[in-house]
Amino acid sequence: MSLSAEFLRFPPHWTVLPFTDAVKDATSGNAKLKKDEYLTTGSVPIVDQGQSLYGGYTDKKDSVCKSELPTIVFGDHTRAFKFIDEPFALGADGAKVLEPRVKLDKRFLFHYLKQLRIESAGYSRHYKFLKESYVPVPPLSEQKRIAAILDKADAIRRKRQQAIQLADDFLRSVFLDMFGDPVTNPKGFKKVPITELADVITGFAFKSNEYVSDSSESVRLCRGANTLTGNFNWNDTAFWPKNKLKKLTGYLIKAGDIILAMDRPWISSGLKVCVFPENQRETYLVQRVARLRPHRDSYTNYIYSCIQSKAFEKHCCPTETTVPHISPIELKSFEVLLPSAELIDKYHLIISKVNCSLGEMVDGKCRSEENFTALSHRAFTGQL
After folding, report:
1. Type I restriction modification DNA specificity domain: from which residue to which, for each copy (predicted)?
2. Residue 99 belongs to what domain range?
3. Which of 123, 181, 161 lies closest to 306 in space, CA to CA?
4. What is the pTM of this model?
């Protein structure tokens, strides 16, 4: 974004500074702990570049970060921003401590940085892109007012997320109670490839230069960008002409199909996998996205839970040092427990009832996310 565009974005009475004039990298001089030094419990939390607030813990008091609290930590590889208000230690590689050089309220700065669009460069460093941005510096009283408004909106958003997390935890406990841990298989169920319960395919390589605008003569395409954790997002949607669908009917998505993003499938909120709902427009599957079509309707919830399990993550073995990707071979070779059809049917009925309430919560969360995004835009264009 050019300098002139940045100045046009902000109100004329706000000072606007290049990022490096407004914010400094205060990482240097702090101890950094390697992954093999992390503890599951300890007196000092470790903040690294992972999506979770804390990556682990330590008892090494001399490793506490010297930055004045509260402070902001940026994940150079992950693009994650964290607001930390208690003593912490830094995890090695990729975690940067950011401090203001000028009169900037840290909550205001945090909210501003969170809404920046930093394009992904894969498992590369992103601080170089952050340094190319600009930071607005309104009067301090205005900063505090904006931060307070965004804090309240963010609290509502997080409470909705916590409610959804509680429901998800309940669903996982039901699964473990009925079937046991898929990794250890304490109930001794037979294991079979997931292809014995569902037809599994990956999408077609639709050429992006042949995408068209949305119209009655086009169909929607489902890409990895549209597939989130438990729900679809169609804000950035591609369309394909209906007159070019010959021999592509096998890639049509139907209600009840389980859709899985194959590239960067794990994000902060979990695995990017969804069940395609009813009453949707005609939608086709794009490459690097998988479709699992259960052989029976009652298999849907069971297969969906198996894909979300730690057993599936362990099978695919993503790491923070590689670009996570699920291959078609990995997906098709994933083994699931094979309980009786009666037990799967019982599980399906229980989960279907819970999902009705969960669906309402997810819709509310989506609305709160949209409202927060709109509020942030207004805040940083001087409209609050």
Report:
1. 29-164
2. 14-137
3. 181
4. 0.62
